Amino acid sequence: PESITVAELAKRMGEKSADLVKSLFNMGMMVTINQNVDQDTAELLVNEFGHTVQRVSESDVDIDTSEDVDAEDTLKPRPPVVTIMGHVDHGKTSLLDAIRGADVAGHEAGGITQHIGAYQVTPKGGDPITFLDTPGHEAFTEMRARGANITDVAILVVAADDGLKPQTVEAINHIKAAEVPMIVAINKIDKDGANAQKVREELLQHEIIVEAMSGEVQDVEVSALKKTGIDKLLEAINLQAELLELKANPDRNADATVVEAKLDKGRGPVATVLVQRGTLKVGDTFVAGPAAGKVRALVDDHGKRVKEAGPAFPVEVLGLSSLPSAGDPFTVVENDQRAREVADYRQRKLDEKRTTSAPMSLDAMFAKKG
Ligand code: GDP
Ligand code: MG
C-alpha cells in the first residue's frame, strides 16, 4: 500500500504508537495514530527506530478472503457447478456434448459453442446449470488438490456394458473425500450387453446405494450417443441443487477460480474463470495466482462478449499479465498497485519453491490435504 496508519506501522515494528507520534512530531509532522503516513515517511521512521525495512509476512501481502464471509441477507440463489467423472471411454466427453445440446438459452442466443473449460446450460423448464469440461485428468481432482473446491455436484458416469473400472473407483474416492453429492449416470444404455442392474450392484460394494436400490443416490440411465435420458439427468441435477440451497452474494467485488488458462495467439494470456461470489466486470483490476491484470473483455461460452459475470457464471477473461494455473484464486482488488504487489509476491514464492523443492505429485498433494 502507498500509505499506512501510524498504529499499524507501530504494530509491525513492535513499537508503541505514542513513540512514533512523538518521533513524527520531532520531524515536524503532527499526526495522530489513526492517520496515514506515506511510504517514505514510514521508511524514515523504521530507520529512526533502528529497524530495517523488511519483506513483510504473507498475511500482510497476500490475499485471504476465507475469513471474509458475506452476511446472510446479501445471499441470492446461484446455479450449481457440476463435474463429470468416470473411467476413460465411459462417455464423459460424449455426455458433456449431449448435455450442451440440451441448452435452450444457448440455442436461442444463436451463439457458436466455444470450448472454454466450462459452460452453462439452461434445460427446458429448468434452472441454469454450470458444467466444468476441462480436459485432462480431471479439473475436479486437480483443483481440489490445490485447495479449490468449486464443484457442488459430481456426476459419476459408468458405462453399462463395462461396469466399474479402476478409474471409476478412483473417482468415487475423490468424490467421497470432497464430500460432494453424487449422481450416477449409467451410460451406453443403448448398447448390446448393457446391464444397468449390474452397475447398481457393483456400486453397493463401494457403499453407494442408488435410488433404484432403495438408496438415496440418484441414478439415471442415459445414452450420450443417442441423447436419451439427458433431460432426466438434468432434472436430477436441478433436484439435487435445490436440496443444497446454493447461494452467493452477487453485489460485491468478484472472488473467482481459474478453471483453465492458455496463451492465445491473437489474444495473449486468456483464463477461464468461474465466479464464486460477487460480479466480475469489464475494467476490474484483479490478481489471478501470480498474474495480475485489468479485465479488458469478458467472453462467454458462446463466444459472446459480456459486460459482467455473476456467481457460477463461467467466462473467459482477457487482460492478464501472464498465465495463471487451473485452481488459482482470481480476486478483484482495489487498485493496480495492490494487484502488482500480490502478484509479485506470489511469483517470488513460486520461484523460491521451484528452486528449493522437487515438484510434488498430485497424489502427494492429496495425501497432504487429507
Ligand atoms: P471419455 O473418455 O469418458 O470422455 O469417453 P468418450 O465420450 O470419449 O466416449 C468413448 C467412446 O464411447 C466414444 O467412441 C463414444 O462414441 C462412445 N460412447 C459414448 N457414449 C456412448 C453411448 O451412450 N452409447 C454408445 N453406444 N457409445 C457411446
Ligand atoms: Mg473424454
TrEMBL record:
Residues 57-77 are annotated as: Disordered. One of the essential components for the initiation of protein synthesis. Protects formylmethionyl-tRNA from spontaneous hydrolysis and promotes its binding to the 30S ribosomal subunits. Also involved in the hydrolysis of GTP during the formation of the 70S ribosomal complex. GTP binds at residues 86-93, 133-137, 187-190. Residues 77-247 form the Tr-type G domain. Residues 59-72 have a biased composition (Acidic residues). It is found in: Cytoplasm. This is Translation initiation factor IF-2. It comes from the Bacteria. Belongs to the TRAFAC class translation factor GTPase superfamily. Classic translation factor GTPase family. IF-2 subfamily.
